[in-house]
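2024-03-11 09:14:02 INFO worker-7 job=invfold-0412 stage=load source=structure_tokens
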């Protein structure tokens, strides 16, 4: 019999990688019923119940329907209990099953789901036992109806998917009801009593063993899927970390040239497609070679880190601040008017001044400064992306020629 879909993992963001050791230990345990780690037991129970409840509703609907059909056999085999059969089947079993199916489909049973499931599953067996006990002692044709009790246990125990506790309760109650009914029924021949009791007990044990076997399989599948989900999550995070590392400048911690090139190409295409604007700022540390000569390369590295950290705080949300190369940095400003781009550049320039980094080779100020070139254009598909970079670079050199520590922006080529 194909089993209904068992509980599974779709993602495991809240389970740490260390949980794999517990899963491996559970899978390696020499237990017939695979144990569940504590942190996964509740997750498994909830997921398993959600996956199997629709299946169990279909099974119970079918069992209730077939149980009602047995009523028509009473007209021939046991006419004396037809009224009782009609009342118990149509007045008790059918409404109870219908109420359970409706409440369960609306998820309104809550913590009472399991006891209600056990009750509604055992109820047909109890009704059948009552009918057997009320059958006339002189009736010798009701044996087929007696055999219906093991069939009910077979249908519910082998077709429905139950927890170990539920299947133990259902099998125990059903076998007990059958044994009592058979032992007390006056029409059952003494020669058939032992075989009937053993047959129903075997069916009950078979139902228990079958459900436990499926439970063991589902637990192993659940744990294997859980391990797979944890590993995939860890790999995803690792790949994201590697991607971030590949796009980050190792010295300054800001975006590197590769990230700049990829972002610039993307934002250029977006600006062309939307007829929007694209701004670019190129920043160069003034007299950086002299700074390196005076303070050494270690001092130069420290200077680059400080400048990158301070300047990256002055860009707009959505802008990309990147190390462009050497002592140069760049800012990509999607959708920025020229005035906004110039304002960002001025914030960066004044922010660097507030660092008050000593620079004996810088001239009169003796403080580290930067020069900035700004350009904004509204590109079209026919334009060359290098046009914006060349324009910003040209304005940077204009700021250098103008005395450094200033912002230069060209209006002539800006849309």
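2024-03-11 09:14:09 INFO worker-7 stage=emit residues=415
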């Amino acid at each position: 019999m194909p089993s209904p879909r068992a509980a599974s993992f779709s993602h495991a963001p809240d389970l740490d990688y260390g949980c794999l050791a517990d899963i491996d230990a559970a899978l390696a345990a020499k237990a017939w019923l695979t144990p569940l780690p504590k942190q996964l037991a509740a997750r498994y129970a909830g997921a398993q119940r959600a996956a199997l409840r629709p299946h169990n509703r279909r099974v119970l609907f079918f069992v209730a329907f077939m149980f009602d059909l047995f009523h028509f056999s009473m007209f021939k085999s046991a006419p004396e209990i037809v009224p009782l059969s009609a009342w118990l089947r149509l007045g008790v079993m059918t409404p109870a099953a219908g109420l359970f199916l409706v409440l369960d489909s609306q998820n309104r049973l809550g913590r009472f789901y399991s006891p209600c499931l056990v009750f509604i599953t055992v109820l047909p067996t109890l009704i059948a036992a009552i009918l057997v006990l009320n059958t006339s002692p002189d009736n010798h044709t009701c044996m087929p109806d007696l055999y219906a009790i093991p069939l009910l246990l077979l249908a519910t125990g082998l077709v429905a998917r139950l927890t170990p506790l539920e299947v133990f309760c259902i099998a125990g109650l059903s076998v007990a009801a059958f044994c009592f009914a058979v032992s007390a029924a006056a029409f059952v021949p003494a020669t058939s009593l032992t075989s009937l009791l053993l047959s129903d007990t075997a069916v009950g044990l078979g139902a228990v063993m079958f459900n436990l076997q499926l439970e063991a399989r589902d637990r192993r599948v659940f744990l294997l899927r859980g391990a797979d989900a944890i590993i995939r999550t860890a790999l995803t995070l690792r790949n994201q970390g590697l991607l971030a590392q590949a796009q980050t400048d190792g010295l300054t911690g800001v975006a590197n040239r590769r990230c700049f090139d990829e972002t610039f190409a993307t934002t250029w295409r977006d600006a062309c497609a939307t007829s929007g604007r694209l701004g670019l700022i190129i920043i160069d540390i003034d007299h950086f070679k002299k700074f390196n000569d005076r303070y050494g390369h270690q001092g130069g590295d420290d200077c680059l880190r400080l400048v990158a950290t301070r300047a990256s705080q002055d860009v707009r949300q959505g802008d990309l601040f990147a190390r462009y190369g050497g002592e140069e940095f760049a800012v990509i400003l999607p959708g920025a008017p020229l005035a906004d781009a110039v304002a960002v550049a001025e914030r960066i320039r004044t922010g660097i001044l507030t660092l008050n980094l000593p620079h004996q080779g810088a001239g009169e100020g003796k403080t580290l400064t930067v020069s900035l070139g700004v350009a904004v254009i509204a590109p079209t598909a026919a334009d060359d992306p290098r046009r914006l970079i060349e324009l910003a670079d040209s304005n940077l050199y204009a700021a250098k020629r103008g005395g450094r520590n200033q912002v230069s922006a060209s209006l002539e080529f800006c849309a």
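2024-03-11 09:14:09 INFO worker-7 stage=report msg="The beta strands are 278-285, 320-325, 328-334, 370-377, 407-409."
2024-03-11 09:14:10 INFO worker-7 job finished
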